[in-house]
User: Fold this.
Amino acid sequence: MRLILLGPPGAGKGTQAEILVSAYGIPQLSTGNILRAAIAEKTPMGLAAKEIMDRGDLVSDEIVNGIVSERLDHEDCKPGFILDGFPRTIPQAGALDKMLAEKGMGLDAVVEITADPDVLVARVINRAKESNRADDNPDVIRNRLSVYSEQTAPLVEFYRGKGLLKSVDGMQPVDEVTAAIRRAVHN
Assistant:
């Protein structure tokens, strides 16, 4: 099973990814985690990323794509994976298509977890109270939702056009969202 989880911040992608990892025995590939692991492992792409990050600059798509490509070559990805946080843009999606084709892989589905923006803001505020995350405040979440809308939401149409998109209502209880995802990816 090779999946991408799409959805705005706070929609429950991380929660669902954890459940799906356990259910399918495949890794969740979060770009932040992949990046930190590549740096720790001192891979060529990881070293390049570290140099850029140490200067305080953003890591380029080329390096992020390279790090994702390296990670997809790991043995635990052979039976499948869940991409969370990648791709974030149409150019990254195009690069992913190319790298998967070169590896003889394809995606099984792209699951969009939909959610009401006002409910997401409330969810994130509640999460902030529980976890003390500095990035979980109303202004930051509204900005993150805006960035998602501008940069990542176009992936919905991109993957719909490829026949891969499955939309799931993320406003349901967690177990119902999980059941809907499982139904969507097996249809």
